[in-house]
Design goal:
The structure holds two protein chains of two kinds.
Chain A (H helix, E strand, L loop, with lengths): L3 E4 L2 E4 L5 E7 L5 E7 L6 E6 L6 E2 L6 E5 L5 E5 L8 E8 L10 E2 L3 E5 L1
Parallel strand pairs in A: 2-11
Antiparallel strand pairs in A: 1-3, 3-8, 4-5, 4-9, 5-6, 7-8, 9-10, 9-11
Chain B lengths: L8 E5 L4 E6 L7 E8 L6 E6 L4 E2 L4 E4 L5 E6 L8 E9 L12 E6 L1
Parallel strand pairs in B: 1-9
Antiparallel strand pairs in B: 2-7, 3-4, 3-8, 5-6, 6-7, 8-9
Classes of the chains: A mainly beta, B mainly beta.
């Protein structure tokens, strides 16, 4: 049971390049999330997927797109990277129901630098 | 989610109890108090949560005031490995939307 895995761990891009961050979970969770964390700050929600087939914007969605590929996988795409997107990106998942108090499990993060 | 307020940083001696406060004066009746921690830029790790009763698990205890406007996370015997940023989050039960993180409290355990 690997939990939440993210690839790659590190990435350096040039301004204008594109890339996709991958996230997978093996806990049969239905909801998945992408956050970013800038230095000295708490995490901010980019997008989330409450269930397979649905996605919703979070606090800071501009410049990103997401795909919920299947129940296990949730990818984040930067179409044209900008230096302001230099950050650490965390994926998370949870088994969410209308009455649950289950907690989110986080991946180890992807450290992205845009030059 | 209700706004939470935490001190920016705290020190604690190794082996002593670390008491981390959190204010959530606007918390609503269906919002739980969750605590997470983040060790050295790793992914956040769940610690404990509660509604109105005190809670204890293998990691920590959570004390919530009777009016639910504040709470305290207690690490009973802090070790150097407990040095981390601790986040207090108010969140409604069963919500599928994301967590709202503040800046948290940077707890430094001194040898």
């Amino acid at each position: 049971n690997a939990g939440v895995t993210q690839t790659p761990k590190f990435q350096v891009l040039k301004t204008g390049q594109s890339m996709t961050l991958q996230c997978a979970q093996d806990m049969n969770h239905n909801s998945m999330y992408w956050y970013r964390q800038d230095p000295g700050m708490g995490l901010r929600l980019i997008y989330y997927s409450a269930s397979e087939g649905t996605t919703d914007k979070g606090e800071v969605p501009n410049g990103y797109n997401v795909s919920r590929l299947n129940k296990r996988e949730f990818s984040l795409r930067l179409e044209s990277a900008a230096p302001s997107q230099t950050s650490v990106y965390f994926c998370a998942s949870i088994f969410s129901t209308g009455t649950s108090t289950d907690t989110q499990y986080f991946g180890p993060g992807t450290r992205l630098t845009v030059l | 989610d209700a706004k939470t307020t935490q001190p920016t940083s705290m020190d604690c001696a190794e082996g002593r109890a670390a008491n981390l406060p959190c204010n959530h004066s606007t918390i609503s009746g269906n919002e739980y108090v969750y605590w997470y921690r983040q060790i050295h830029s790793q992914g956040p790790q769940y610690i404990i949560h509660g509604l109105k009763n005190n809670e204890t698990n293998e990691m920590a205890s959570l004390i919530i005031t009777e009016d639910r406007k504040s709470s305290t996370l207690i690490l009973p015997h802090a070790t150097l490995r407990d040095t981390a940023v601790y986040y207090c989050i108010a969140r409604r039960r069963g919500g599928a939307d994301g967590l709202t993180f503040g800046k948290g409290t940077h707890l430094i355990i001194q040898p």
